[in-house]
């Protein structure tokens, strides 16, 4: 996301002639290289009005579905506090596309209620992982078709925030359902059945309520559709010839995209908290001495704090058009929480719980802002779609988390928390490294542009010699 303008780069970073820097800045602003920015008051009102319509007609259904996606991931940890493993006989250690996968994971969630062995549980979780794997990156790519780059982080956060809400909501649901002690089913079976039925219902609404792109949005007037398409073409590519199809060139370019692979590495390590640790968070809380149902209830405050912190950070990131400092701020909150939790003895229940609350407050910040950061620095829609899907590979961190938080390390789980702390420090360094590389690239381009005439800049901006973020006129967001 372009939080650094060309005139700032030329004048402040490189200390070139101020008159030349002003000329360069005006040229780039004329070409709207830094993404879409409404100019006139009328355009600004239309811009915000269009965003509000998308907020009301596109986001809510995706948010509701992702809420239950998060519930279906975390319910295993909630069920574990009600002796789920013991009851089934396993050791404790041990658009149509969207509609179809939503229906499938709802059905597979219900199947959890009837598993009888560890092999059956593994099979159901494996199938569920396959069904869920494409949902998150597909939704991010889908939202990037509707919102310009400088409006993405907060929308990604509203969407991703449902994962944190799911943790709190899931704890409340589990607390209520675990009070049921009647009939032939265990309370944890009712939990899986309820949380599986709702995604099935929501899957039926997807093809009815969601449009494939702004041009076909049923809730927009003809002139709004035209404006929505125009602003996304301007926002998407420097030469104004943006296309929303994936080409062979996109695939080749994504393989050579260094910023993607460095970001993926940092994301995989950082994802241990939201993807791995949070799944078994109720079990960790139970290790502090809270009983089964109460353990689920005690998971609610940290997730509520996590949601609020995420939305505040994302709103600030969009408002200031800055990504790195907001990502690092979230990582530092995680690290502080981990240090408190690791250093305090198990007997200090209040202190360790406070550490977990701080930890979860920062755990959800980085993912949506990193996704918005990458999306804004990848102007070609096809390449951006593939890149966001690959960034989703960071979910492999869930495997790390499941291997770390084994029952043998309970009740304090000190070793898994220490390893997680180390991973967070390395991830933070990884994001700093990506920031440095992007800043160096911006400096190099600003030096090059400072020696070019306005005619040469225009030719660079409109020719196909270099495309997308490889153009000298493209300024990486920091």
From TrEMBL:
It comes from the Eukaryota. The keyword Nucleotide-binding does not apply. The keyword Transmembrane applies. Keywords: Membrane, Transmembrane, Transmembrane helix, Transport. Signal peptide: none annotated. It is found in: Membrane. This is MFS general substrate transporter. The chain crosses the membrane at residues 54-71, 95-115, 122-145, 157-178, 190-210, 290-315, 327-347, 353-374, 417-438. InterPro entries: MFS, MFS_trans_sf. One of its GO terms (cellular component) is membrane. It is a multi-pass membrane protein. One of its GO terms (molecular function) is transmembrane transporter activity.
């Amino acid at each position: 996301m372009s939080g650094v303008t060309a005139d700032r780069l030329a004048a402040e970073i490189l200390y070139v002639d101020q008159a030349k820097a002003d000329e360069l800045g005006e040229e780039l602003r004329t070409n709207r290289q830094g993404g879409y920015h409404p100019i006139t008051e009328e355009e600004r009102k239309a811009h915000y009005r269009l965003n509000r319509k998308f907020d009301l007609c596109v986001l809510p259904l995706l948010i509701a579905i992702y809420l239950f996606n998060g519930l279906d991931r975390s319910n295993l940890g909630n069920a574990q506090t009600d002796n789920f493993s013991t009851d089934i006989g396993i050791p404790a250690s041990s658009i149509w596309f969207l509609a179809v996968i939503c229906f499938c994971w709802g059905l597979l969630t219900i199947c959890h209620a009837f598993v009888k062995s560890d092999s059956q549980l593994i099979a159901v979780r494996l199938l569920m992982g396959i069904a869920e794997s494409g949902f998150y990156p597909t939704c991010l790519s889908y939202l990037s078709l509707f919102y310009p780059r400088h409006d993405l982080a907060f929308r990604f956060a509203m969407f991703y925030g449902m994962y944190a809400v799911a943790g709190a909501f899931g704890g409340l649901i589990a607390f209520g359902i675990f009070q049921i002690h009647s009939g032939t089913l265990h309370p944890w079976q009712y939990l899986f059945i309820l949380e599986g039925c709702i995604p099935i219902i929501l899957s039926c609404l997807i093809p009815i309520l969601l449009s494939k792109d702004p041009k076909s949005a049923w809730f927009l007037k003809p002139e709004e559709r035209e404006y929505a398409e125009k602003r996304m073409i301007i926002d998407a590519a420097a030469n104004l010839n943006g296309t929303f199809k994936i080409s062979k060139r996109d695939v080749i370019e994504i393989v050579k995209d260094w910023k993607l692979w460095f970001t993926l590495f940092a994301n995989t390590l950082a994802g241990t908290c939201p993807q791995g640790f949070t799944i078994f968070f109720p079990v960790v809380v139970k290790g502090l001495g809270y009983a089964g149902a109460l353990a689920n209830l005690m998971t609610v405050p940290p997730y509520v704090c996590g949601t609020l912190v995420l939305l505040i950070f994302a709103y600030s990131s969009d408002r200031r058009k800055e990504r790195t400092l907001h990502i690092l701020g979230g990582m530092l909150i995680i690290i502080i929480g981990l240090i408190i939790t690791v250093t305090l003895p198990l007997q200090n229940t209040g202190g360790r719980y406070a550490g977990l609350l701080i930890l979860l407050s920062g755990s959800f910040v980085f993912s949506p802002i990193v996704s918005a950061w990458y999306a804004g620095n990848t102007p070609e829609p096809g390449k951006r779609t593939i890149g966001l899907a690959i960034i989703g590979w960071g979910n492999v961190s869930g495997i790390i988390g499941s291997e770390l938080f084994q029952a043998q390390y309970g009740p304090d789980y000190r070793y898994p928390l220490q390893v997680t702390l180390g991973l967070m420090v390395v991830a933070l360094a990884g994001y700093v490294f990506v920031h440095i590389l992007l800043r160096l690239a911006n400096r190099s381009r600003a030096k090059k542009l400072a020696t070019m005439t306005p005619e040469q800049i225009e030719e660079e901006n409109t020719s196909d010699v270099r495309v997308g973020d490889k153009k000298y006129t493209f300024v990486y967001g920091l």
